[in-house]
Amino acid sequence: LIQEGLRSGFLYPLVEKQDGNGGSITLPLDACNLSELCEMAKHFTSLNEMELQTLQLPEDDMPITELDLSSQVIENSSSFSKMITLMGQKYLLPPKSSFLLSDISCMQPLLNCSKTFDVIVIDPPWENKSVKRSNRYNWLSPQQIKQMPVPKLAAADCLVVTWVTNRQKHLCFVKEELYPSVTYCSREDTNCSRCVRITEVLKDYIKPGGQCLELFARNLQPGWMSWGNEVLKFQHVDYFIALESGR
Predict the structure, then answer these.
(1) What is the pLDDT of residues 163-188, one digit of tens each?
(2) What's the domain count of the chain?
(3) How much is the pLDDT for 215?
(4) What string of H, E and C letters represents the secondary structure of 47-59?
(5) Does a structural domain hold residue 191?
(6) N or C terminus: fewer CB in 10 A for the chain?
(7) Is residue 17 part of a domain?
(8) Global pTM?
(9) What tens digit of pLDDT does each residue of 97-122 get?
(10) Is the pLDDT of residue 46 over 60?
């Protein structure tokens, strides 16, 4: 996929920058734009036509570099974290975690897993004026969110949790259109840039061995399946601190 992107003009070689003294300058964390990688993958017919199976990372310590991580479910079935390299950037995968790196138009690999989930957490990019003006990232209209294939992914008695802004229009949509006949509750959170740790919030509602899924995720959770076009964003190694030896 990387080589095809370079040939097609979607990607350009990353040239190492230097400061005035000739030293290397650390590239920003968004040097590998995951959402743009997902957009690029959609244009390759060969990828769209392939019936890709879940890719399980090997149990041994074999180096994993430049894997085609787009458009198929990746699973770390081991009991310890693994590191992968994507477009020169390193990401940590928690134990027993799975993910699909794609946008909303390429969710079929997730449906192909033939799994249903007991808990589904949805953190959609709600439409708002500031996002429209900034053009920094994509947003979805309420109707697009309503068309998400949640019913196909939900097990019987599935708990569906949806993060929503405090905009009255969105709150009414969730209560009256998205979930018109279900019980709901709310929790206020002032941290709008990153969600609280969902496993802590939901620990009383997740049964032992329950299957859990997060949609529009930007990080991975041990034991969870995660999907989104920035699903590895906060798994970048620069967001982690290595423990000292012996600790």
Answers:
(1) 888 888 888 888 888 888 665 566 66
(2) 1
(3) 97
(4) HHHCCCCCEECCC
(5) yes
(6) C
(7) no
(8) 0.78
(9) 999 998 888 888 899 988 999 999 99
(10) no
Of residues 218 and 2, more confidence is placed in 218
Range of the domain at 55: 2-11+24-238
- The answer to the question of residue 243 being in a domain is no
- Integer Cα distance of 13 and 187 in angstroms: 45
- Measured CA to CA, the distance from residue 7 to residue 194 in angstroms comes to 36
DSSP string, the chain: -HHHHHHHTS----PPPB-TTSPBPPPPGGGS-HHHHHHHHTT-HHHHH--PPPEEPPSS----BS---BTSEEEE-SSS-EEEEETTEEEEE-TTEEEEE--GGG-HHHHHT---EEEEEE---B--HHHHHH-SS--B-HHHHHTS-HHHHEEEEEEEEE---S-HHHHHHIIIIISTTS-------S--SS---HHHHTTTT--TT--EEEES-SS--TTEEEEETTTTGGGBGGG--PPPTT-
